[in-house]
Design goal:
Distance between the termini of chain A: 55 Å
Helix content of chain A: 25-40%
Number of helices of chain A: 14
Structural class of chain C: alpha+beta
CATH architecture of the largest domain in chain A: Roll
Largest interface: A-B, 76 and 45 residues
CATH topology of the largest domain in chain A: Ubiquitin-like (UB roll)
Number of helices of chain C: 11
Distance between the termini of chain C: 88 Å
Strand order of the largest sheet of chain A: 1-14-13-17-15-16
Strand order of the largest sheet of chain C: 1-5
Order of helices and strands of chain C: HHHHEEHHEEHEEHHEEHEH
Shape of chain C: elongated
Strand content of chain A: 15-25%
CATH class of the largest domain in chain A: Alpha Beta
Largest sheet of chain A: 6 strands, mixed
Number of domains of chain C: 2
Number of strands of chain A: 17
Low-confidence stretches of chain A: none
Number of domains of chain A: 3
Radius of gyration of chain A: 21 Å
Helix content of chain C: 25-40%
Oligomer: heterotrimer
Chains: A alpha/beta (446), B mainly alpha (338), C alpha+beta (321)
Amino acid sequence: MGILKTFVLGGVHPAENKLSANAAIEAVPVPKQVIIPLGQNLGAPSKPIVKKGDQVKTGQLIAEASGFISANIHSPVSGTVLKIDQFIDVTGYKRPCVFIHVEGDEWDESIDRSDKLETHISLSSEEIVARVKASGIVGLGGATFPTSVKLMPPPGKKAEYLIINGVECEPYLTSDHRMMLEKGSEIIVGIQILMKALLVEKAIIGIENNKTDAINHLTELAKTDERIRVIALKVRYPQGGEKQLIKAALNREVPSGKLPIEVGCVVQNVSTAFAVYEAVQKNKPLFERVVTVTGKAVKKPSNFLVRIGTSTQDLIDAAAGLPESTGKVISGGPMMGKAITELDTPIVKGTSGILLMEKTESRRLVENPCIRCSRCTYACPMGLEPYLLTKAAKLGKLQMAEKEMIMDCIECGSCQYTCPSGIPLLDYLRLGKIKVGRAIRTRIKK
Amino acid sequence: MNKFTIAGSPHIHGDESTKKIMVGVVIALVPAMLVGVYYFGVDAIRVLLLAIIASLFFEWLIQKYLIKGTVTIMDGSALVTGILLAMNVPSNLPGWMVVVGALVAIGMAKMSFGGLGKNIFNPALVARVFLLVSFPVQMTSWPKPAPITDGLADVITGPTPLGIVKEGLGNGQTMSQLASELPSYTRDMVGNIGGSLGEVSVIAILLGGIYLLWKKIITWHIPVSILVTVGVFSGLMWGSNPEYYADPVFHLLTGGLMLGAIFMATDMVTSPMTKSGQIIFGFGVGLLTILIRLWGAYPEGVSFAILIMNAVVPLINKGFKPKRFGAKSGVPIKAKSL
Amino acid sequence: MDNIILIAVSALGGLGLIAAVILYYIASKFKVFEDPKIDEVESALPSANCGGCGFPGCRAFAEATVVSAREIKSLDGLNCPVGGNEVMQAVGKILGLEVEAKDPMIAVIRCNGSTTHSPAKVKYEGANSCAFAHALYGGEGGCQFGCLGLADCVDACEFEAIHMNPETGLPEVNDKCTACNACVLACPRGIIELRKRGPKDKRIFVSCVNMEKGAPAKKNCKVACIGCSLCQKACAFDAITITSFLAYIDFNKCTLCRKCVEVCPTNAIHEVNFKPRKPKAETLTPEKSVSGKPLADKQLVSDSSKTGPENKKEELIETKE
């Protein structure tokens, strides 16, 4: 196959641990009650349009976008709205949520529930964008950026490539992998829809080389459309980052502080492409997704098709229970996921996995003094100097941190992963980003 | 109830640790140590043990009673300093001088800056230079190598190849006249020459260097840039007048250059953080080494060169930034003054 | 020989002379006029350079006072919290202005979610920074308003006036506090407030900032304000307002009658530096039955009583175990 493509700067290669790679996607039963957080996407939280006592159907709109960067939310179940109240979500804070008591599973009539593959795209470009927006689709890779916003390039900018992210560089997670294997044809149609919406003629699917079955499968399927190309990438974290993926696939560098559209690219996750297919061809809004439940001690590592709002506990039960030795529960992967405090935390659109980590595995190293070994600098995929930024953040030297481009940090955690002294580099980088971000905002206000 | 842990990502960690790095360095030093012991016998073992024990002891003493902080002698950094110190002195150095050296290395060069990771200068080299300046006679009477297999003979002292050249040229002799006095390159490679305990065998040091590169403890930038600079610069001088300047191969194989380039200059704490900076650093070390060797008062200049460049490291770190993602390619972003 | 000495002396002397002329010229050419009063004011200031006045340092504050005095003939809005009234009077005197006396203030920590009152449900690992932990999650005890216990306020304090109490995991303010506001800004949760020191350092405040409803607040912390409004009813001076299930005592209206302290069912209202009460009124004990009645057999007294009257100035935040 020759030399595999990858990005140039930095990166690490953690143990892959894809325990659930061979577990077929399995639908978990609809729970008795769902709790749907109103802030599921990047940007403004959605505004509820139902009230206590309302009857809702599966797929019915229950909260609408409250700004440009915001998304609609649809009921994942049919039943009665119990209340709109505060409940803990993945951020670790209590946020407004819609509580729905489940009664049966009656779907909205407009949704096409057949399994038939619809390949003919009848909608126009504008209609596709409108449908994607109405269906509340957000980036399912974890960033949850509203997809419709990405499909509308700012005036004067033209997309040239659509890049489909099937990298899944996070260890443990396999939801995208399974989607590519099981929903390949739908994903290809989803890509064609996205291409039509963006008016681009070239699409690239980037997949890491540890998923050869998915590469072969999609390459085979993409033969029908010569505009779509599948490329195998060397396994390297954080290749799933937008900027790194574009660099790996096209050797283009997104300028600092700019979006991928600057170099003519739009990046979408494979699961997002599938969601787009369902929204456009089946009129089904986004209310369920595939979530990997995994961990070294988990008896049955699985990939579940889950309704949004199901509690984490339900999923853990479906994967044969919480192991005794669990020390940390993570929503997402081990490199960028968020540790959650309570098992009641509901699954949201951005939850790609639930990782139950062993006490021994999740423990942090004892912090030793920095020996200036530069490993963090070598590992940084953005070419930053984490040791320096950490020092600046600790001492409150915000000006220096900003000059050293702290805001370019993508929080991938490669620096901290590689630090032999066990310094919580990313903790301090985040702290620095919070402080510098605040300083920049006040400056802009002035 | 099971109490979960909450922490920011990443939740996993690579298997590197400070201790692992230090142990790696020690392993890499083993071949050179063995050669030292082979050629310099029991004396070499004595110096090695003394330096290691004294370094660990002073680190423990200072951390426990002077700083009153946590004692971290088990992290291996004092062990590495001790070994490197021993490798940088003649094997016939009186024991108390070795102990003084360890005190200077740990107390003056390391702990007074705040301990591991905060020192500006390489501790072992500071100690070596301190000893060289304080006890010039003892520090420059090199024992003649006598393989341990030949039995325990009386130690005879003899000059190092660099010393022969320096003195010979100083007395008005030419290189071709000196050639008969100099050991062959094969002897330089194996280590059958006069010199400090650990610097004699090029092959043993290179073996260690390859191990360090393989284990990714060091990168190639510093050693290669030093050796290339020394080679090119000494080659130029040799080309201009082969009778007055030694050839580049001689410069590369003799003295403490290999030890310095592979073990001393690559010390993480005292070398630049970026690869471009490391190349500049290596260039500086190479240049200064040759300048001192050819025109300085001392026959050997690696330790001075490294120490001088150590002092410049903070400046190099300011000036040479890694290539930022999304910046114009090839142009490192200069740190603007604040 | 003499010649050489002469040449050396004259050459060096000449150099010195030329340098002096150049220096003099430059000094007079580039002289910046500064109001001498700035220096005077600055010398009257405490030179802590803490930034409590809102300026980057004492010099900047001195400049601001001089400008203000020149342009609006008053020092309104300018105050050195560290120096207090004394210093401001002195500054006023230098500038020839009357300065109104201000009430002395002190930083007050409005959270009592200690390890016993709000036991940890999860374990935090990571950077020792409240600002970071605040961005990461709600809090070990589950209260997302309460103190994170990672001492950002202690780091912010220039006067060593705040220390962490290792037993409770909460910060404590001592008498060195100058009310410079640094800790207030440092706390990501807005727990610390500057309040009136009060007569003889007596003060009453609600030691809670939880804005949740009663039940969820109480679930995470035994001493949370549950917004029951009993204190509001007990207050005869309209000093207590309740917003988002959280009581707040206006220190300008409060007369320190202590009625609210008695009625609070969760002991969220604290009194500091008061004389111990008669046994009947020992409502400050943290141990209480669920019904809200004090447990009579507990012989607990307020912290202020332990320190005795001569130590009244000691600022003590309620942290009894």
